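Appendix B, Record 12. Input sequence as logged:
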Amino acid sequence: MKYSFTFIISMIFTFSSCSNPGSFEIFPVKVNLDGQTQRYRTDKESIERTYIDNIESVRLSQRQQEGYVVNEDSINPEISSGYWIYTPYALRFRNDYKRVASPVRTDERISLAVDTLTYSKDSLYCVALVIVKVKNDMNPDFEIPKDSCYYDGMAIIGMRKDKYCPFYLFPMSIWTIIGDHSYRIARRELRNFYFNRIKDFASWDGKYSCGIGDPEFFNSAPDFKIDSLGCHLFESFNDLGKRYQYYNYQE
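Logged structural output:
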């Protein structure tokens, strides 16, 4: 399936790192910078590839725990703390309701498209709106699918040391789309939320005052607040009132 991508760049202020749908006519902010289009494409492809590789790493790690021989070089140990982010795609329920690693390679079952990227002014931070396509199969050992495929939508925060490096990826899990039958509907709803409906939305960490296309987003979003360790809040997650730090993970 061939996807179309919308090129959107937001010129926005940013904090320093702790480590080294409706109608969309108003969304695009056109910027004419040498190399910007190519960098956008490179970043998009890098995020897509990294996310698929991370899912495969979790799948192989689980397969290994189940007693299968796997290629250990394909397992990224840094994924451990972000394990739960990838389990919906790496693991599947058998007919006996036991959750096990998918027997199918990730790139044969999962495809991922970065629909939209918005950047901070210095391009060291981004928000990526991502659509995941999951192909169902008729393996009799697993749950029987209703449709041949379904689509999920999510937002990911990227952070890097300089604009020529790949992004470290962190989930922005305040709102996601799960199991939609239509790519176009999933895309429309995802963009509508993160550009429009997110305004006045409250999370564990605070309230959002603008969408990801607003020039003040990277200044005002609670995800970019700095914690007592000098790290952004998006670099950790809240579980039963306690914060746990992600490890940075990238390709």
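The radius of gyration is 18 Å.
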